[in-house]
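User: ok so my PI wants both of these folded by tonight, can you help

Assistant: No problem, let's get them done. Here's the first:
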Amino acid sequence: LREVLAAGAARNWDKMIELAQELEELARSQKAILDPGADEFPGDGHPDANPG
């Protein structure tokens, strides 16, 4: 996040976009680890907890 702030202060938009994409990738990978069934069953990854 420090790099994002530094890039923003320097108005380095390309770097900000690059870092934001990296953060998004990291967030998705963490979600996949913490919630492996998220793509099949939105929410908590457990089909029994998602009626419908």
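One down. Here's the second:
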Amino acid sequence: EAKLAEAQSKADEYLDQWRRTAAEFANYRKRVEKEQAEYTKYANANLILKLLPLLDDFERAFQTLPDGLSKLTWVEGIFLIHRKFQYVLEQEGLKPIETEGQFFDPMVHEAITYEETDHYEDGQIIAEVQKGYKLHDRVLRPALVRVARKKEKREEGKEEKQAEGQPAAEEASNEKEP
């Protein structure tokens, strides 16, 4: 009876080890499938990144196109090629990053200048210099933007001194000297 109990114990132990190994293998298979799907999803990223300057060139060309040329058949043909090119990239998961009316987000925007203004809120995007794009949910190229900063209110005393020809910073340093 002791041998039977020992054999049953070993059988239970082996069965438990087998179940754990089977579960580990199933988890491994799921992880590999997920990694392969992720790899496939972003496999075209380098190619699409190389095609973005072409898309930029199309858009710049259409923005500077004189009105008289836009109705020509060959120009309309190029416009159709541009739209088809955009459609193919969209089908691959490419989406432009929104900037109009948005606030600066360092995760998707790259600020090339900050401009003091009263016409926009602090941190609001003034203009887009270059379009940014996401491939599915990843930033492929950040949008290059100009960002607003609120004008700083200066102390009246400093402004008066500057108007007299002596910068306020120089006066402050002169006051510290005995």
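Confidence is low (pLDDT under 50) at residues 165-178. The chain has five helices and six strands. Good luck tonight!
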